[in-house]
């Protein structure tokens, strides 16, 4: 089985972003608990944490595919010779690519109108773009105030110059098309790696086995 892929500058960006999101969720939750203990409340904390959690899960899913960190039961795969194992890996990758493409279509269609962009036609596969856009750029979230420095750009582009009181939904909802695009890209990259022979399966994490092996004491050298 091929080893894990080496680190790159994109790994650092993704890992930093995921760590920042996780840290922000932790700080917000702690601050809100402390505020409630003192009889106050951070009104927007729950909504912000929910959006951050969605970004964390969706971005983390694509990153885990990239690093082959998702769990996989590969007992049967290990019993196959290299040729059939590779064919099975390509079949699994093809199924995942189709699935990710469907998720990307759904993510784009849900987000597009909030950005005043056309969704795709067709129930399962995109058959073009809708002719009449149902513009929803004026939709706002419930509790999170819009930062003043962002208002000029977003108000002019998505709300006909009218300033937002709360952040527009297009900002947090952008996690869907972005993460599904990354997920599709990761599955395509994995399929190409299998086709080139760089790896023999899609994803399979053996983190628990690796930790157990690392924890085992080294065997003493056999005495002569």
From TrEMBL:
Entry keywords, A to Z: Cell inner membrane, Cell membrane, Membrane, Transmembrane, Transmembrane helix, Transport
Species of provenance: Oceanicella actignis
Quaternary organization: The complex comprises the extracytoplasmic solute receptor protein and the two transmembrane proteins.
Membrane topology: Multi-pass membrane protein
Domain Tripartite ATP-independent periplasmic transporters DctQ component span(s) in chain numbering: 25-112
Membrane-spanning parts: 16-35, 41-65, 86-104, 170-195
Localization in the cell: Cell inner membrane
Protein name, UniProt field: TRAP transporter small permease protein
The UniProt record lists the keyword Nuclease: no
Family the UniProt entry places it in: Belongs to the TRAP transporter small permease family.
């Amino acid at each position: 089985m091929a080893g894990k892929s080496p680190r790159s500058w994109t790994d650092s960006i993704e890992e930093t972003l995921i760590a920042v999101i996780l840290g922000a969720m932790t700080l917000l939750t702690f601050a809100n608990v402390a505020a409630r203990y003192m009889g106050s409340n951070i009104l927007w904390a729950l909504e912000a944490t929910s959006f951050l959690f969605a970004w964390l899960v969706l971005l983390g899913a694509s990153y885990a595919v990239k690093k082959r960190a998702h769990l996989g039961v590969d007992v049967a795969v290990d019993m196959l010779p290299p040729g059939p194992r590779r064919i099975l890996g390509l079949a699994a990758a093809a199924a995942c690519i189709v699935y990710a493409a469907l998720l990307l279509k759904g993510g784009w269609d849900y987000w597009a109108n909030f950005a005043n962009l056309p969704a795709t036609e067709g129930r399962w596969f995109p058959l073009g773009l809708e002719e009449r856009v149902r513009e929803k750029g004026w939709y706002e979230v419930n509790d999170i105030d819009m930062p003043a420095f962002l208002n000029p750009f977003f108000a002019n582009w998505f709300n006909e110059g009218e300033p937002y009181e709360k952040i527009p939904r297009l900002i947090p909802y952008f996690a869907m098309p972005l993460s599904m695009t990354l997920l599709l890209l990761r599955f395509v990259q994995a399929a190409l790696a299998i086709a080139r022979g760089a790896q023999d399966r899609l994803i399979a994490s053996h983190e628990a086995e690796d930790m157990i092996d690392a924890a085992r004491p080294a065997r003493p050298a056999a005495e002569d």
